[in-house]
Write the structure tokens for this entry.
Amino acid sequence: MQEFLEFTLGGIATGMIYAAIALSLVLIWRGTRILNYSQGGMAMFTTYIAWLVIRDTGSYWAGFAVALAAGLVLGSVLEVAVVRPTENKPPLNAVIVTIGLLILLEGAAGIIYGGQYRSFPAAFSIKGLKAGSIGLGISPNDVFTAAAVLAAALILALVFRYTSVGLRLRAAAFAPAVARLLGIRIGRVLTLGWALAGLFGALAGVLVTSSTFLYPNSMDSIFVLGFTAAVIGGLDSPLGAVIGGIVLGVVLSYAGGYLGSNLVLVYGLAALVLVLMIRPTGLFSSATVRRV
Amino acid sequence: MTESAALAVEDLVAGYGGVTVLEAVSLAAQPGTITAVLGANGAGKTTLLRTISGLVRPRQGRILIDGANLARRRPEDITRAGVAHVPEGQGVVTELTIEENLKLGGLIRRGSGRGAALADAYQRFPLLAERKRRQAGTLSGGERQILVIARALMAAPRVLLLDEPSLGLAPRMVTQVMDLVRRLRDDTGLTVLLVEQNARSALAIADRGLVLNMGKVVAADDAAALSADVALRRHYLGF
Amino acid sequence: MTLARHLGAAIVVAAIVVLLSIQLSAYRDYQLAEVAAYLVAVAGLTVLIGLSGQISIGHGAFMAIGGYTSALLLTHLGWPLALILLASVVVSAAGGALFGVAAARLRGPYLAGATLMLAVALPTVADQYQHFFGGDQGLSVAITTPASLGATFPPTRWQAWVTCASALIALILLANLARSRVGRSWRAVRDDEVAAALSGLNVARLQVLAFVVSAACAGLGGALLAVVTGIVAPGAYTLTLSIALLTAAVLGGLGTLPGALWGSLVLVLVPTYLTNVGTSHGLSSGASSSVPIAAYGVILIVVMLVFPAGIQGGLRRLFGSAVDTPPALSRWRVPFTRSAGTSPPPPLRPPAQGRENQEEGPS
């Protein structure tokens, strides 16, 4: 029973990381129909920047803040410089370009920081919490992780619903042609979408890297699991991204706990293929599949 | 005539890919008038509006809005110059509420103007005020048409391009919409370019009429004169 | 007739390779063998992407399957080399069939994501069953030069012969396939899936077949590479490998077999050069080995933005149609798409290229 509790809570905590990545993917997909394969690479890169700041200033929170800001900047720059030129080209081009970005970021990180595994600090204690004498399987840092992602998602939801920026973002996602006719500069809105995606990716990166090591490929597996979470929830749905993340985190936690933890990625692959075969549009998407 | 016109088009040539749809089309719409753009399916009426609003890039010709040539500019810029285009099929954003749709139209205004524009819209269209929190997808065809016109007005345009507003509407709604357009011209001095299949209703409220056939202008005259020309009506307009 | 032409060309090439391998130093023979091994894998991938319109960023996984199969067979059963290579092809083809069937209905970014996941997930299997797969250390692969060639025959030359012969056979088969009805069907599906289905083609079966063929090629390439490098380990089959294969296919020219050759040459010759550039500029060895990785990224981005038809496309433009035609990259559809921008109402018929156009209506 204690095991079950630990697996559940631990799964939720990890699931929030997947949710953050999934949110970044949804943010970009909704507005541009591009899947950003470099999202993990962007997150890794901003985490390296955080690492540098923490090393030089000794302050975790300074690094945290700089990483988030760097995520905003990196997202905007990449959209304008590399992704915008693929706008009117076939979709295959955008896929290959974002893959190119991924590997470029990994290579650049290796060149700048070297390829060795580095340790990255956690914001809070990583000792397991207990309720009385029952181990809960999560630490204060895990709680912070989940809270941070939830808070960010909540703020995003509020921005979407109640601000004119949010209205622009939603219009650009639902009906870009109409929005252009109403005078909305779609290009700037798309850049903003990428900036926000970069922010969420950066958040995921600094939160998760304390429990692994920091190296150029450190976000690869997190990314594919975040992608799986996005697919589960439906690539069109931010709410689906969060729920998909939690569901995936918990399911993989059980699978890894009861079946052996080395093969978590294989279970994730199985989950992905299963979802894509049964309900490819995900649990929450409103998009319909076009068939003849 | 083009000097005083709110909207003028000179020798416009436009099309898609290898196909030319508009061949040297010219027109001049005076401020505060309704110009009906008529003709059969495929004559180029929709393409004309899309070229004026910037969705289609013209190959040749000028588009003058209050005297300034805005051909080849992007739709966002042309809208900000005071041209509102309500496309065929309305373009209601069904995932948003009525109020959000309206607000969307007002986004290009400065912050202070937006609130006033919204209040104006609710005053002029009490139907929308009643249902402002409802999802726009729940509206009927006629209500949607009213919504998109109201949305277009949020930006306080000087020129309104209306593409087939009567499409798919019951006759009673068609009358309501046409009435609305007429009142807008009377009350606010709006210049309207009205593309319509339903030539009879359009000519009933229009000041001028333009008849297109195969991308060329075959007739341009006062609306009354066009209505009286039985041969023309029978040949090009179907009534 | 094409088969005869291909065989003739292959014989000429084989003769050249033999002469070359004798002239070249042992190190260059080793590189020749590497090029041949990658060539097989890249050729399969370029056929998958360029001809059948499916993307894979996970073909490193199929190379791993082929490599580990040959290593295990060699270690435990000691089969002759030809049989081992054949077995690697069969096993990888089976893996390709399995994945292909599961992914048959996936398109665009969903398929790419699934293959990405395959690339990242599969190496972890070696960690789970360490005893069998040799864990992080991997398994060694050692083949012996046949006695009939004499005791002083350089093993690198033998490896070059084996790999080049395998590559030639694979290329002939691929070339014939590309020109056969299957190849034409692939192109039809790539260009317009709905029209192809309506005209009676079994789209799912064709897509799975393309996966099987490309996975088989990757498996053979993996087995050959294992023979050449002498080892299989999880570290040899990283995501970087899958992306490197993609880079080679894209740079060379998607869908063209000569393009696969240009890409493989770059894949083998350029990284060492770039790493050396890195070290000569004072980078640590870890950092300088990342230079080629960054270079792959730059290549992918620049090629896609500036000359999507790749090297072969450029050659074709210079030398005319004597050279293979790279397919148009415009025929690739994204599922569940709503109009992502303004597009004109189709005056005549719906356009079949680029992002899906959902606006229809009278003009």
Remarks:
- Chain B touches chain C at residues 16, 19, 21, 41-42, 44, 46-47, 50, 55-56, 75, 88-89 (CB under 8 Å).
- Strands of chain B lie at 7-16, 19-29, 34-38, 60-65, 68-69, 83-86, 159-163, 191-195, 208-213, 216-222.
